[in-house]
Design goal:
Elements: H1 4-21, H2 28-40, H3 44-47, H4 59-83, H5 87-102
Helix pairs in contact: 1-4, 2-4, 2-5, 4-5
């Protein structure tokens, strides 16, 4: 039998995989809501790309946060391709840029 920590890591890995493979919606409203959810679930201190990023919590928690970062990037790309001229895209772009700045990551625009 595995340790409690092992079980926890396995559960965290499953959560991260679920986030990564969860389909991104197609409508403007759903994409906007999903972007809010993704950005609010990112733990910047765990996912931050930089010299002083902290890893005080489990690697599973980092993996989950990184999965949300990946999902946020996917949402942004889909929104940009699908409705970049729609007024709602402005808010999605603002959320994306803000979180990418917090993460010390290039927004890739």
């Amino acid at each position: 039998m595995g340790s409690v920590l092992g079980k926890s890591d396995e559960v965290d890995q499953r959560k991260a995989l679920f986030i990564k493979t969860f389909p991104v919606p197609n409508t403007v409203e759903e994409l906007s809501e999903f972007m809010y959810m993704a950005t609010s679930n990112i733990n910047v201190s765990l996912s931050k790309k930089g010299l002083f990023s902290t890893f005080k919590q489990s690697s599973g928690e980092k993996e989950i946060s990184d999965a949300w970062v990946s999902k946020m990037q996917q949402i942004y790309r889909k929104a940009e391709m699908s409705f970049s001229s729609h007024p709602a895209f402005t808010q999605i772009k603002k959320l994306y840029r803000s979180k990418m700045t917090e993460l010390n990551m290039n927004a890739g625009e």
